[in-house]
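Re: export button greyed out
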Amino acid sequence: MTLVEIKQVILDILERITPDEDLSQLKDEVPFREQMELDSMDFLDIVMELRKQYRIQIPEADYHNLGTMNGTVSYLFPMMQGLKKAHA
Amino acid sequence: MQAQIPDHKRIVITGIGLTSPNGNNLAEFRANLLAGRSGVVPFQTRYMGDVLAGVCNFDELRYQKRKEVRRGTRAGSVSIYCAREAIQDSGLDWSQVPKDRVGVYLGITEHGNVETENEIFEISKFNYDTKVWSHHHNPRTVANNPAGEVTLNMGITGPHYTLGAACAAGNAGFIQGMQMLWLDEVDLAIAGGVSESIHTFGIFASFNSQGALASHPDPTKASRPFDTQRNGIVVAEGGGICVLERLSSAKARGARIHGEIVGHAINTDATDFVLPHADRQSQCMQLALKRAHLSADDIDIVSSHATATTQGDIEECNAIRQVFGNRPSLAVNNTKSFIGHAMGAAGALELLGNLPAFQDGIAHATINLDEQDPACVLTQIVANQPRQMDRVRYILNNSFGMLGINSVVIIKKYEDA
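Workaround output, generated via the alternate export path:
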């Protein structure tokens, strides 16, 4: 997967777990929580969806890397670049 | 006798919110009960396939965001819808209600089966890897979930909990709310019963294994209490929630009063896991009458619990006969014949659908009663067509459940005195 495809994976997950949010204006460099209602349980949903769809295990110590879209995509790229996008 | 009780000890119903398989508010529900319209439909359940069920079609998004619906449970959505509708019906200015003086007391037959089954099904797709078990499972399955979701949605900071009372739970919710008002724990009780049970295959499978799951080529004829052709229960979902408050506060704000809770009782058979016991049921009714300072002759409508199981219906008929004899002016009706068995919501819905009788004087019918089982000894069952009554001042609502729990609530037509 490319960086763009990984970003789309995250957007798809966000769309599912925060269905009331307008994601079209999401800024990649701004923390998710400053732009949308996203609490700790939602955050765990992101981790869970990546685990289910791509068998990616993200250690709790690394959760801080998932604060923004840019941080998330950069963190996931080494793990996902060899994967194909799943049909969620 | 009732007039001697001070107003702050008299508990009245000032708001009603409900969703039933044949109506999403009291007016719709009542109209369909009077018209004989069933809410039982074909339904697909996991592993079993085609079954029959009472399915609600209320708008979850009327009072919840999509994210709330996704995060919560079906029972939570049912509860929020009914609680919001009840508050709206009460005429209260919700923004001015002190939220720490509101309590939420909801009866449930069971809770958590739906989410547990869903999660087991989900991890089965991952070779039962428990690492994909949802972190939402615990908050969704804690027993207080339906009541807790109401508090989150409405900003209520007073007490909240559910009452596990099998299929007697709807009455139990009302009784708990009334008692908490008596104890001055709260000034407003959001009380009743809810059910999400059609979304767990286990309840269908268990009734089926027990030989107590209804089947019929015509879904609308499947739930047939007291009838010779009855063959079991139609499982239903739903919710019935009331705003309860003291008569003193209801009068002070000029509230419309749907009825007054004047009698209640809960007792236990202590005889069997599933089989009911007529003697204990009749004792429960007698205790409620005694507490209401009424005699059996005062009751106009008995809203029966009968679920269309062979023995259950016979036992309740015997119990009602013990208490009321053959008095022809009594009407006995049954709501499950229309909507199936709404489990934790059953007692609540069955009571609420009868309350408009205080205004229109009509006892709704028991439908699908083509040939009354001779073993169901009652002569007062309102068969298939509603009955215009000479008077309706008191309604007695039966609601019984597994493990031998019996509950009775008596409601009086409110007459300013």
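The helical segments of chain A are 3-17, 32-35, 40-54, 69-80. The button fix ships in the next patch.
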